[in-house]
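[recover] target loaded
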């Protein structure tokens, strides 16, 4: 059992374990409304990208690039460094129509 754990740590230089740990910490921090959780998620994706590249799993390489992009956007929006225009909500639009008809 111990040999299996040590071997798994050496296969990808421990990056697969770092991906798991950083990803869980990042998710916990985001769920606790801490924007720095996005930074942990970005680090997790960088580790995951490296592991996927080393193992030849190019679908996961693309996955990690996409998730990293989403995490960067999330961090920028959360910290106010990226202004995102609010989208028109269909319910609000219909509410205005009903109000116009009542007048």
């Amino acid at each position: 059992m111990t040999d299996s754990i040590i071997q798994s740590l050496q296969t990808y230089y421990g990056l697969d374990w770092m991906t798991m740990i950083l990803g869980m910490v990042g998710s916990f921090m985001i769920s606790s409304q801490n924007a720095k959780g996005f930074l942990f998620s970005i680090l997790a994706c960088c580790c995951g990208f490296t592991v996927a590249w080393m193992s030849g799993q190019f679908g996961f390489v693309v996955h990690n690039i996409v998730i990293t992009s989403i995490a960067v956007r999330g961090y920028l929006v959360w910290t106010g460094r990226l202004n995102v225009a609010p989208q028109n909500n269909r319910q609000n639009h219909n509410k205005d129509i009903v109000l116009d008809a009542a007048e």
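[recover] notes: The helical segments are 2-11, 15-31, 36-55, 58-78, 90-102.
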